[in-house]
């Protein structure tokens, strides 16, 4: 028997899949990076700038995969006045938001994985190889953090258009940090533990052929992934607490 959290997650995922325009938009965003890098790699060698582009597109993919789902799960339901009936059910609001987070996280992970698969094809053509187990441990949790941030923003917005504005601005977070790293590389050390920045540093090191064996690659990635996942749960808790506020419940 499915728990309320899984029922809500399934409902949000199925409803989002019916919106084919949003799904196609997310697919285009996810594959935009591999397509651009492939076209650039046809003309130039894979140098530092191209490696920076790969990492930036990967970070952005984690944020765009579930963006359309996140703006509809809370802000959209507030606009349609269907959020209050849902909150009136005898289900903990934390479980409700957890179910929505699982749905948004599923699409975020899907976009990020699709992006990485696209780059895998490009890397195979260029004769490059990545430690994919370390990539999974360090990079995939970023999609969960993106889903938490998007849900938190969605609880603040009263309509889909407002959520679309703010969530589109959120995409500039990984894009801005990524471009800053490309043209003004930050020092290593504690920067490697920061979500987004840490993932970019790891990607660039792997793409440049960084060595260190399995432990040297997987352990730092797993530590960053755990820290990113913990931050995602913290942001999710903040978003869940917002569902107890009157302006969220009644739409004032």
Account of the protein in words:
The protein is mainly alpha-helical. Helix 6 (93-126) packs across helix 8 and helix 6 (93-126) packs antiparallel against helix 12 (213-242). It is built from 13 helices and no strands. It has helices spanning 4-18, 20-43, 48-64, 67-80, 83-87, 93-126, 132-139, 141-156, 160-170, 172-183, 197-207, 213-242, 246-249. The mean pLDDT is 80. The chain has one domain.
Layout of strands and helices, then pairs:
Elements: H1 4-18, H2 20-43, H3 48-64, H4 67-80, H5 83-87, H6 93-126, H7 132-139, H8 141-156, H9 160-170, H10 172-183, H11 197-207, H12 213-242, H13 246-249
Helix pairs in contact: 1-6, 2-3, 2-6, 3-6, 3-8, 3-10, 3-11, 4-6, 4-8, 4-9, 6-8, 6-12, 7-12, 8-9, 8-12
Overall domain count? 1
How much of the sequence is in beta strands?
Answer: under 5%
**Overall pLDDT:** 80
Helical/strand content category: mainly alpha
**How many H/I helices?**
13
The sequence of SSEs as H and E is HHHHHHHHHHHHH
Which assembly state applies to the chains in this document? single chain
Low-pLDDT ranges: none
Total number of beta strands: 0
What characteristic shape results from the CA principal axes?
elongated
Tell me the span between the first and last alpha carbons: 36 Å
Helix content: over 70%
**Overall radius of gyration:** 19 Å
Main pleated-sheet profile: none
Overview in brief:
The chain has one domain (4-249). Helix content is 80%, strand content 0%. It has helices spanning 4-18, 20-43, 48-64, 67-80, 83-87, 93-126, 132-139, 141-156, 160-170, 172-183, 197-207, 213-242, 246-249.
């Amino acid at each position: 028997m499915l728990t309320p959290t899984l029922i809500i997650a399934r409902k949000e995922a199925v409803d989002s899949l019916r919106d084919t325009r949003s799904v196609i938009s997310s697919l285009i965003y996810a594959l935009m990076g591999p397509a651009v890098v492939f076209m650039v790699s046809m003309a130039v060698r894979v140098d530092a700038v191209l490696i920076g582009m790969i990492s930036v597109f990967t970070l952005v993919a984690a944020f765009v995969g579930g963006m359309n789902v996140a703006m509809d799960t809370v802000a959209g339901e507030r606009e349609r006045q269907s959020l209050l009936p849902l909150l009136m059910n005898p289900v903990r609001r934390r479980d409700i938001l957890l179910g929505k987070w699982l749905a948004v996280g599923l699409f975020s992970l899907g976009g990020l994985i699709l992006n990485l698969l696209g780059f895998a094809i490009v890397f195979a053509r260029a004769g490059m190889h990545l430690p994919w187990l370390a990539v999974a441990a360090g990079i995939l949790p970023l999609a969960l953090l993106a889903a938490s941030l998007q849900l938190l923003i969605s609880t603040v917005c009263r309509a889909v258009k407002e959520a679309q504005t703010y969530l589109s601005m959120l995409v500039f977070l990984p894009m801005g940090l990524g471009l800053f790293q490309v043209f003004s590389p930050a020092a290593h050390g504690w920067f490697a533990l920061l979500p987004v920045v840490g993932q970019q540093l790891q990607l660039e090191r792997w793409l440049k052929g960084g060595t260190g064996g399995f432990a040297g690659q997987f352990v730092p990635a797993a530590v960053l992934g755990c820290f990113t996942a913990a931050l995602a749960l913290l942001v999710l808790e903040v978003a869940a607490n917002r569902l107890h506020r009157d302006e969220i419940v009644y739409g004032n």
